[in-house]
Request: fold
Amino acid sequence: MMTGGRGLSDLSVRRPYLAAVMSFLIVIAGIGALWGIEVRELPDVDRPIVSVRANYPGASPTTVDAEVSSLVEGAVARVAGVEAVRTSSEEGNFRMRVEFGPDRDLANAANDVREAVSRVEPRLPDGVEDLFVVKSEEDADPIVDVAVWSDSRSIDELTRLVEEAIATEFTAVDGVAEVILFGDRQRVLRVEVKPDRLAAFGLSIGEVAEVLRNAQFDVPVGSFASGPIEVLVRADATVAEPQRIEDLLMRDRVRLGDVADVYFGLATPDSVARLDRRLVVSL
Reply:
């Protein structure tokens, strides 16, 4: 009687092509099973991660931690589903990473964090700016780089166009967590104080800052009602032009223009982006 092993060996010797085809089919079945099998023990889990960032220009890391980071962290830590909060306080800014459980929806988690941050925002110092919440997963990386340039627009006009018309469209795309700009330049009103003039009038830089801080742009003064008609009244006190800034009164008859030069210019760049030797705004 022929055994099964000997019969298979005898068949392979007598019909080698059939044996080769059978072996090849077994290999194909194994590869198909390898790619088609469902992974149960080590699934690919994207943990919901939400980032919170803000700038506090001029503040030391200790000040940022005590007056900003601790307040935001205390509010965010009470959000349902938070498993870990990591905060980094640096000079002039702080970054916070909020990690949720895998069963938490990322969009809902980000909305809850925004609500928590908005509740403590009125308690933050006046100098805190650019406070925002960003949805980002643990393995999220930049996937698209876009460069924008113009031969007719200045860099500040191009920056405004990108922020208002392009970046907002990308942000609205499903799956996009954040759009970051590089090489952008804002148009700002600069006040260049002359120390010798300031000393000649016996004034301090603090007084200059106070005058600028108290400059009114648009003041609500109430409303006027007559029967069913109600009209809101605002006092137009705009001082956005350099000449009107220079006319601000410092003390007695001393104007701000007597101790400083006021003009429009570009903000100090935080980053510079170039493509083919031309300045661009990169997204």
In short: The chain is about 35% helix and 25% strand.
